Amino acid sequence: MKKTIAFILLFALMLGVATMAFAGDNEMTLGEEAAKEAEMNRKAIFTLVILAVAAVLFFTEIIPLPIVAILVPVALSFPGIDILKGVEAFSHFGNKWVIIFLAMFMVGEAASRTGFADKVGRATVNAAGTNQIKLIILVMFSVGVMSAFLSNTGTTVVFIPMVLGVCARAGLKHGQILMPMAFAASLGGAMTMIGTPPNGIINSALENAGMPAFGFFEFAKIGLPLFIVGIIYYALIGYKSLPNTEADIIVEEKNIEYRTNKMPFAIAIFIFVVVMMASGWMHLTTAAMLGACLVVATGCITMEEAFSSVSWTTIFLFAGMLSMSEAMQVTGAANMIADMVVANVNSPLMLLAVTYIITAIVTNFMSNTATSALMAPIGIALASGFGISPAPVFMAIAMAASACFLTPIATPPNTIVLGPGGYRFADYAKAGWALQVITAIVSIILIPMIWPF
Q1: Is 449 part of a structural domain of the chain?
Q2: Is-contact 291 300, C-beta < 8 A?
Q3: 77: containing domain
Q4: How far, in Å, are 90, 136, 182, 250, 422 from residue 247 at the CA level?
Q5: Structure pTM?
Q6: pLDDT tens, 287-322?
Q7: How many structural domains is the chain composed of?
Q8: Does any domain span residue 212?
Q9: Is residue 333 part of a domain?
C-alpha cells in the first residue's frame, strides 16, 4: 500500500510540474533573453523538487532504492518537464564508471569463489587467537586492505562466519568484533579508485566537468591515514565503547566447495587488472572488462555467478543519479545551492568543513552512493563559486561518504553486520561517534594540505 501511494505521489508531482511548465510557456510574454532565463530558473527549481522527492524516497525506502534511481531520469525527461532529453537522461547507464564497477564485482567474486578471500580470513582469525584486542586489530587490517581492492560488501560477508566461529571458541562477544570490522571495510574501500562506489562517482563528476580525475591510489593519501587512525582508535580506546551484544544465532563451520585449483588464475587476473589500472597502461574500462571476461573464461566463476555477483542496487543507483548530477549542472540548480552556502562562509577551509559535515550527516541516514551522487554537482558549484580548486572539495565529499559510523544504514558493511552482531540502532552511535569526529577533524586538516585550495 505504501509503495502504491509513493508511486502515485511521485507521478502526481511530475504531472503537476509538467502542467506548470506548459502554463509557464503559454504565459511567456517577456523578451527572448528574459524568457530563456525564466525558463532556466523554472527548470532549476523543478530539478531541485525532483531531487528533494528522491532524497525523501531514499531516506524512507518506501520504494526500493534502484527504482527510485531509475525514476529520476524518468522524471527529468518527462513530457512537459524536459530538463533532459530521454536519450541524455538514460545515457549514464553506459558511463565508464558504471561499467568498471560492474566488471570489478565479477573480478572480486573470483577471489571469493576460488577460496582466496576465505584463506586470508582464516589466517587472520587464527593469528589473532583468543585475544580480543589482537583480533580487532588483525580483522580490521585484513578487511580494510581487501576492501580497498575487492567489494567491501563482499569482504564483510566473507569474514562474518569466521569471526563468529572464533568468537564462539574463544568465549568472546562477537558484537565487539563485527562493528569495528564493518567500519574498517568502509575506511579500506575509501583508499582506492575501485574500493567504493562514491570514489567512482566523484571521479565521474570531475571528468564530466572537464577536470582531471583522481588517480587510482590518490585516494589513499587521505584514506590510508583515516584507516590507520581507525585501527589505532579501537585498539587503544574505542574497544571500550563497543556494544557487548551477541545475536541469538547458531554458528556453523561451513565446508564450502571452493575452486582452489583456480585460485592462481583469480589472483593473477586480479593483480593484472589492478596494475593496468594503476599504471595507465590500459584504459580503466578495458582492463576491468578484460578481467571480468578472463575470470569466467578460466573457470574461476560461472556466468551465473558472474551475474549474481553484481550489486545491481549499486549499479542502478550509480547510473540513475548521474542524470541528476547532469541536470543540476545544466539548469543551474547546483549553483543555486552553492550560492546559499558560499554566502554564509568566509574561508575555503570553512567551506570544506561545511561540505564534509553535510555529506557525513546525510550519508548516515541515506545510501552513501546516493549521497555522493547528490553532492557531486554541488561540489563543483561550491568550488567554482568560491574560486578554489575542486579537488579538496571533492575529496572531502568522497571521504565523508565512506567515513560514516553513526547508523546501520550509512554504508553497506554497517547494514550487513546489524543482524549477526545483534545490534540496535543506537549501538552504532555509541561506538562510532568518536571515530566520526576524529575522521572529520583529520580529513578537514589534511585534505587542504594534500590538495591545496
Answers
A1: no
A2: no
A3: 1-92
A4: 43, 18, 16, 9, 4
A5: 0.74
A6: 989 999 999 999 999 999 999 888 787 788 778 877
A7: 2
A8: yes
A9: no
